[in-house]
Each structure stands twice: as C-alpha cells, then as structure tokens.
Amino acid sequence: MASDLRAVGLLGGGVIGGGWAARFLLGGIDVRLYDPDPEAERKLGEMLENARRALTRLSAVALPREGSLTVVGTPADAAQGVQLVQESAPERLELKQTLLAEACAAAAPDVLIASSTSGLRPTALAAGMAHPGRFVVAHPFNPVYLLPLVELCGGERTAAGTVARAKAIYGSLGMAPLVVRKEIDGFVADRLLEALWREALWLVKDGVATVAEVDDAIRLAAGLRWSFMGTFLTYRIAGGEEGMRHFMAQFGPALKWPWTKLTDVPELTEELLDTIVAQSDEQAAGLGVRELEQLRDDCLVSVLQALRGRDIGAGAVLARHEQALSGAARARVLVAGDDLSQPLALHSAQVAPDWVDYNGHAHESRYLQVFGDASDALFAYIGIDAAYLATGSYFTVESHLSHLREALLDDRLAVTTQVLDCDARRLHVFHSLWREGDGDLLATAEQLLLHVDTVARRAAPASPAVLARVQRIAQAQASLPRSDRVGRAIGIPRG
Ligand SMILES: NC(=O)c1ccc[n+]([C@@H]2O[C@H](COP(=O)([O-])OP(=O)(O)OC[C@H]3O[C@@H](n4cnc5c(N)ncnc54)[C@H](O)[C@@H]3O)[C@@H](O)[C@H]2O)c1
To answer: Is the CB of 147 inside a 6 Å radius of any atom of ligand 1?
Structure first.
C-alpha cells in the first residue's frame, strides 16, 4: 500500500534520477542513491534547491518533513531497507539489465523495482532478474518533482498485483499514473512526442523554420490547449456543434496528404547539428541550465496553479494531492496525553508568489486565509471531521485582525491558537502568526466562532464530545496571559 513507502533506492541520479530524488525527499521519503559519477551529489544538491523553490511556491499546503539522503557505493546497497528501487541510469539495455538484476538479487522479496526508461520494453529490461514479477516500468517526465504523469507498463512476467501496487505508491506522491494497456516501445507519451520531434527536426533541416519559430508554433497555440484538454477533446470542439464525427469528416482526408514525413528521420549531419546548436544557443540568450530550469519551473507553477483553480488536468491532480496532504497534516486530533497548557501550534504555511501584492508583502486577504486555515486545524483537533460536518460546524461571525510586521515572499509561517472562552455554541479564540526563523510576531486575529446546525443553517450547541474537548482546552489555557490586543477596538488612541 501507498503508506508503506518510507525509503527508496535510486540507481542513477542525473536529470531524471535527481528529479525523482527531489520528489521523494520533498514528499518525506528517505532516499538511498547510487551513481558512479563523483559529481552526482553536487548536481543533485543544485536540482534539489530548485525543486524546493518550485514546490514551496506551488502550494500553500505545508510539505511533509523532508526525507534524508544517503549516498551509497553499490546498487545492492541502494536496495537495502527500502520499499521501492527506481532505476534511472543511461538508456542502454545491457547496462540497465545488469543494474536491475543486481538490485533484484539484493532487495527483500517484497521490494518493488521500477525503471524510468523512456522507451525500452519491460520484458527485455527484466531479462536478467531473478524475480521479474515485481518489476514495472515507471516512466516519468522532466521535471519529475512537478509533472504528475508517470506511465506504468508491465512486462510478460510482471505479476498481477505489481502494477496496482505501483499505482498506489506513485499516486500517494501526488502523481497521476497512466497504465499502458499493451507493452510497446516508447509507451504512449513518447510515441506522440517522437512524432512531433521528428517533424520539428525536418522543419529546421529543410530551412522552413528556425528552432525558435518551431517553438513559437507550439507554445503560442496548440501547447496552450494541450495543457488542459489534450488532443482529442480539443479537436472535438474544433468539430463545432456536430463534434468529433464532423471534425473527422472535415480533416480526416487531409491526413492522407503528404504533409508529414511520417517515420523518416533527417540524417543528423554535422551541418544540421551545427544549425540546431547555434540557433538553440541564440534562443537561450545566455541563460544557464539552472536558470532555464527555474524559468521553466516558475511557468509550470503558474500553469498548475491556474489549472488547479479550474480543477482540470494536472491542476485536478494537484488539488487532490493538496487535499490529501492537508488531511494528513490536520489529522492531528486531541488525545489524552496532549499538553494543552500553551497556545496550540496546529497550522503552518509559506508565503507564495501570488500572495505578494504591490507593496511587496502578503496581501491582507492572505492573513485571513492563514487564520481561517488555523481555525480549520483547530476544528479538526477538537474532532470535527467529514462525518461531523454533515450536521454541524463552526462559522466565523467576527474577526479582528492586527498587522504587526510584514510577511514576505517565501517566509515560513506558524500559527499558535489560544482558546479564550467557550460555551455550548460559541468559541472565542486568539491566533498569533509567527515567522519561523527569527520568531517575529507578524499578525494576530481574535475571532468569535458560532456553532451551527448545518442542516437547519441555524446556531445550535456543539456535540457533547466536541464541547468536552473545547472545554478541556479552555480550562487548560485559562491562566495563560492574554495579549493586550484581546478585546481591543479599532480607533486612533488620543492622549
Ligand atoms: N531526460 C528526460 O527527459 C527523460 C524523461 C523520462 C525518462 N528518461 C529516462 O531516464 C533515464 C535516465 O535519463 P537521464 O536523462 O536522467 O540521463 P542522465 O544522463 O542525466 O543521467 C544518468 C545518470 O546515470 C548515472 N549512471 C551512469 N552509469 C550508471 C550505473 N552503472 N549505475 C547507476 N547510475 C549510472 C550517470 O552518472 C548519470 O548521473 C533514461 O532511461 C531515460 O530514458 C529521461
């Protein structure tokens, strides 16, 4: 099951292995990395830095505590004490076969073994494995820490439950597994990408377009549509009111015209390579790979956030993962031994780029959002879960926010919550918003919350169990000092 995943062994830590390391580590999973390149740890460190930057911007939901990275000296060592081995070595069949066989021989029997291959068939990759039943291709996309798709493809000897197990594991990491129905070279995505890539090379070779013009032809039109609807749904709309059948009737015959070069590949002569490299250098305008990665990641973050708002495509995957993460974070429920004598630390967050306004700090609405989320965490803590919400909940009836210092981009925030008073229907709380690191108090919010019967939509007493927990907290905190902001009215103090 997904929750079993605590540690992963990685074979290869380049572009893809490093991306996997980032997804696992930032998802709270420990990593054991084997890579013969003496520079691998440095490269991984830089990629991890970029991944941290991207993921903290992507989501307001706090990430799990980071996993630990251990660099090991052999493939067998990478397979020790882990639940999954992910191979991301160079795309050479024999090399991968040897590595996978070694890892398989060293791993405990229930360890899942996966390859990131872009197109080699799983049956061939597993040829040297003593236990091929546990092997599956898990083909990700770059950057692995941001893009959700992972194609899963079993081979002839892959056991029945292996793909399902892989689906649960990668799903728990916020990915969207796509199970390839038949074992084929290149799987689904790379079959499509190869076709486009071949055409792109022909267009440059034939002097029809430069590399930048080919990129414009994609990113200014079809690329925008693909990110949320893909190809079939987009073309259905292009068929107008009569939909797909009309689209096929109108554009189907054109498929037989000799527009494309089909599977012909331009010969990669020195001349063609020089042209592509020179045009590509011009296009990159002096930006190094890490800067280009940051630019790509920032754009992906913006697209993912926009799609999350529409609950579509990769945005829907992100929304589901955030719900799971915040559910796990909020799963903290009051238990017998909890120390309630101090303000409760139940919620944390981070200032994302889209929180920042023209004054260069978090927009005022974000403070209320953070305090609202802190109240939600308190509700979960006192036992208000999905079942309870069907009949009862607390509504906020009054808030008094005080802004004391600026919350700035990337600041990590923590909220502490003091219960000032309660009765059967009302809950009076005082939240304090702190900046992690320097411990500055940034803002406070005093709130009055009213318990409501969510069916009748009227104030009603909380359930005895919820009320008992609220009263326990209120009693434990009764003698805590109160901020001088409690009970303050807004006004300009005179003399
Ligand atoms: N780059 C992509 O966009 C992409 C996307 C999806 C899948 N893949 C697949 O991922 C795999 C890795 O590709 P990449 O782009 O990360 O390549 P890469 O060259 O960036 O990384 C390969 C890494 O493997 C290491 N390595 C070399 N020999 C090794 C060995 N014997 N054992 C362990 N590690 C070894 C290298 O030092 C290097 O760090 C390939 O199978 C590729 O097809 C690549």
So the answer is: no
The confidence score (pLDDT) of residue 330 equals 60
The answer to whether 150 and 86 are in contact (CB under 8 A) is no
| Cβ 86 under 6 angstroms from ligand 1 | no
Give me ligand 1 centre to Cα 87, in Å: 8
Three-state secondary-structure class, residue 476: helix
For helices 270-284 and 189-205, angle between their N-to-C axes, nearest 10 degrees? 100
Substitution candidate for ligand 1 out of 15, 41, 46 with most atoms within 8 A of CB? 15
Q: Which of 87, 174, 76, 171 is nearest to 122 (CA)?
A: 87
DSSP β-ladder status, 176-179 and 149-153: parallel
Task: Using most ligand atoms within 8 A of CB, pick from 95, 99, 118, 146 the residue to mutate for ligand 1.
Answer: 118
Ligand 1 proximity of 36 Cβ (cutoff 6 Å): yes
Q: How does DSSP classify residue 261?
A: -
Nearest residue to 396 (alpha-carbon basis) of 415, 375, 381 = 375
The response to whether residue 143 sits with its C-beta less than 6 Å from ligand 1 reads no
What is the rounded (10 degree) CA torsion for 271, 276, 281, 284? 180
| 19 within ligand 1 shell (Cβ under 6 A) | no
pLDDT tens for 255-282 read 887 777 777 888 999 999 999 999 999 9
| Strand (E) or helix (H) holding 401 | strand 392-403
- Average of per-residue pLDDT values in the chain: 93
Strands 426-435 and 412-422 come out as antiparallel
- Across the range 50-75, mean pLDDT stands at 89
- Per-residue model confidence as pLDDT tens digits over 281-297: 999 999 998 899 999 99
pLDDT at 3: 52
DSSP codes joined into one string, 169-189? HHHHTT-EEEE-SS--TTTTH
Q: How far is the CA of 85 from the centre of ligand 1 (A)?
A: 14
CB-ligand 1 contact for 10 (6 Å cutoff): no
- Find the 57 Cα to ligand 1 centroid distance in Å: 27
Q: In this predicted model, what pLDDT tens digit does every residue of 159-191 receive, in sequence order? A: 989 999 999 999 999 999 999 999 999 999 999
**Paired sense of beta strands 441-453 and 458-459, if any:** antiparallel
Residue 495 has pLDDT above 80, yes or no: no
Give residues with Cβ within 8 angstroms of 328, minimum separation 6. 64
